[in-house]
Amino acid sequence: MEHLEQHLAADDRELATQWDRVEAWVSQRFGRDTSIEAILFLIGVQSRGRGYEPEMAKEKKQDAIMEGTHCAFEKLGLYERIGLDEDGFWIWERSVSQIPSLPIDDQEKLLKLGIVRYFEDVLEADEGDGP
């Protein structure tokens, strides 16, 4: 619980700046929607290592978003990968004993924090390639 509170205490202005960088990078790179769900979908597709499937069923898209959510929360130490299932997909387990029910704003903040952490290395590498 203490770990969760530390994340929620993160500076909102700094997070907003970092989130803007992620959105700009995703938009430039993919020319797509930069909503939280869209970014989680991209993370989930990347995590599964199968690439984007144009005819992907709605259920598979939802699974990819959930996979992206787990990947984002992994960066915050809230979930960890414990193995692969029979289809080759990650099996996830909470790293924290219990995650309380949170207001929607706090849920969104945690997702954004995890997504920002997920993209940190990519964004830093891109900045190093600049003019």
Task: Summarize the entry for a quick read.
The chain is mainly α and 131 residues long. It contains five helices and two strands, in the order ααααββα. Strands 1-2 form a two-stranded antiparallel sheet.
Looking at this protein, list some descriptive labels.
mainly alpha; 2 strands
Describe this structure in words.
The chain has 131 residues and is mainly α. It has one domain (2-128). It is built from five helices and two strands. It has helices spanning 2-8, 12-30, 36-48, 58-75, 104-128; strands at 79-84, 90-94. A two-stranded antiparallel sheet has the order 1-2. Strand 1 and strand 2 (90-94) form a beta hairpin. Helix 4 (58-75) packs across helix 5 (104-128). The longest helix has 25 residues, at 104-128.
Oligomer: single chain
Count of DSSP strands: 2
Placed side by side, the strands forming the largest sheet appear as 1-2
Number of helices: 5
Which whole number gives the mean pLDDT?
A: 87
Rg, alpha carbons: 15 Å
List the helices and strands and how they pair.
Layout (H helix, E strand, L loop, with lengths): L1 H7 L3 H19 L5 H13 L9 H18 L3 E6 L5 E5 L9 H25 L3
Antiparallel strand pairs: 1-2
